[in-house]
Sequence to fold (224 residues):
Amino acid sequence: MFLHHRPSPGSGDIPQSVTVGDTTLRVLFLEKRVRNINLRLVGDELRVSAPRGVPPGRVSRAIVEAAASLLRRRAGRQGRGKHFASGPGALLEEARRVAARFPDPPEVEGVEYTDRQVACWGTYSRATRRIRLAAVVGHMPAWVREAVLAHELTHTVHFDHGPEFRALLQRVCPDTLRAREFLRGVQWATDALRDPGSGAGELLLRRASGERPTDPSWPEAFPG
Ligand SMILES: [Zn+2]
Fold:
């Protein structure tokens, strides 16, 4: 499926914009070979394509119907994004569940998120028996968060990251290497965004804005 930014012969009859509540969306008609009327919300642009021969009146009705539901769905997603996937109460339970996997389960007095911690994903204080996690870990998949908790709890037994540390961590958290690669990817993207000269940060921001390649020779998507 390829995008062409040529106006369709009938696009003059399709509204240029649609307003729902206090939000106005620009309507961009894309001539695209499709089987059904397709509507996609990208920023404040509603991208529409329709099979040849569909009357403009039907496309217009579909635009009006879809605009409201697409905006509602987006509001729902953003609402969820503001909350931690794992709030502070659930986090303590998570940490205790992970602690219970240890041959000699360490005590966890408390776990908290902090956004002041930028250099590492988590810390454990032997003095207070408290774990602190970088706030962003609260938004990551549960298996990654568990691996960070397992790492910190393993420090209750071993100070360093030597072979004994690694063996125990692997035992209590079989996903530990996968989580490490996940976090390396996050770190890579973070570094790229911090360094505007690298070019990668700029490309990531363009991806985040929803831009898609318009060159028909590009494969549709990877991974599919
Ligand atoms: Zn460590």
About this structure: Residues 151, 155, 161 surround zinc ion (CB under 6 Å).
